[in-house]
Specification:
By secondary structure, this protein is α+β, with helices and mostly antiparallel strands. The protein is about 25% helix and about 25% strand. The strands form three sheets. It has a seven-stranded mixed sheet with strand order 5-2-1-6-7-8-9. Helix 1 runs parallel beside helix 6 and helix 5 runs antiparallel to helix 7. It binds one RNA strand through strand 3, strand 15 and helix 8.
RNA sequence: CGCAGGGUAGAGCAGCCAGGUAGCUCGUCGGGCUCAUAACCCGGAGGACGGGGGUUCAAAUCCCCCCCCUGCAA
């Protein structure tokens, strides 16, 4: 079975690796073009490209998937099935029509919930206690295609976008291998339509979403920290201009009886912040321009005093 | 040539602009106080200030080159 893989980010890597490990016939890998990235704007290949080239698989990097040249290329490759995972571009119907077995997409949520670009992040931000990864047939809509299968996983309190992404990526990869191993010949796998009435949307995060509002309950802020961990991070401002990213924290039920955003140092080493409801204990902090550090070191190095506050 | 901050005791920071015996908080070691302590008091160890050159009577501080770290941006 001729498989064309399309993916870009870290989430797609386990899927590609599993396909390689199980010796599926990969006729090519499509990924986003190398982008200027990182300090100094060096041209950087996507994580998926790194894996593909390491296994000497042909790589295609169209600027636009709907580009006629690229569509012709896909036709020429004549894939039986296209597998998509975190590719980052909308595929035009002209491409979806090509593979006789359909285009299979790996989506890290329990569809129809959390359709869109940032399902893992929003599930965490919303404080969900369960999520999953869904295998579906891509259609013209955004994550609206028929569902092939889904795996559920509980979200633990210590989960962040990092841990969940890693976990769901691996689960999804296994699920994909299972599906491809049982594929019918010459036609798409069995799938059932989504219930659109239950659909919710998980749009791409923006930098502004990471800005902490201390007038929110401690639990909500803690969830924001977990959900934005990969990017943009949950941040606030200290002593007027210093941007601080909260890397790790914990929400406590106790009330500080201070204005939200006010700091309190407890037992010489605990960094507490008053919120609208409950208290947030900061465990790990990263001031802009510094490496992330323990709250304890932050208190010592910056000579923190109870009563100081965060601007927001 | 994208913008910007930084590398000073085990950790986090100050000192650098206006060169002249290296400082703060924490940790650590020893002693004391205490029923006891992560609390408090006293004392000690630990740093050729990222690397290399230069200027100077004198460089953590001024000049040049290199290495490394980080935030933003993408």
């Amino acid at each position: 079975m001729r498989i064309l893989f399309m993916g870009t980010s870290e989430f797609a890597v386990p899927a590609l690796k599993e396909l390689i490990a199980h010796k599926f016939e990969l006729i090519g890998v499509v990924t986003q073009p190398d982008r200027p990235s990182g300090r100094g704007k060096r041209l950087t290949p996507s994580p998926v490209k790194g894996v593909a080239t390491a296994h000497t698989i042909q790589v295609y990097q169209p600027e636009k998937a709907r580009n006629p040249d690229f569509v012709r290329t896909v036709k020429r490759l004549a894939p039986d099935v296209i597998v998509v995972a975190a590719f980052g571009q909308i595929l035009p119907q002209t491409i979806l029509d090509i593979p006789p077995c359909g285009t299979i997409n790996l989506h890290p949520s329990l569809l129809p919930r959390y359709r869109g670009a940032a399902p893992i992040q929003w599930a965490l931000i919303n404080g969900e206690t369960e999520t999953g990864v869904t295998l579906m047939l891509l259609d013209a809509g955004e994550d609206t295609g028929d569902i092939i299968s889904a795996d559920r996983v509980p979200i633990r309190d210590e989960d962040t976008a990092f841990t969940l992404t890693r976990q769901l990526a691996q689960l999804g990869a296994n699920q994909l291998v299972r599906c491809l191993s049982n594929m019918p010949i010459g036609e798409p796998p069995f799938a059932v339509p989504q219930n659109d009435a239950e659909a919710t949307h998980a749009p791409r995060l923006t930098k502004e979403i990471g800005r902490i509002d201390w007038n929110q309950p401690a639990i909500a802020i803690h969830n924001l920290v977990r959900g934005t961990a990969i990017w943009p991070g949950a941040y606030t401002f200290f002593r007027e201009k210093l941007r601080l990213k909260i890397v790790r924290c914990q929400s406590l039920p106790q009330e500080l009886d201070r204005r939200p955003g006010t700091l309190e140092i407890a037992e010489r080493q605990k960094l507490l912040v008053a919120t609208a409801e409950g208290t947030l204990q900061l465990l790990e902090i990263q001031p802009a321009t510094k490496k992330s550090m323990e709250a304890h070191d932050f208190i010592n190095g910056y000579q923190l005093q109870t009563g100081e506050f965060f601007n927001y």
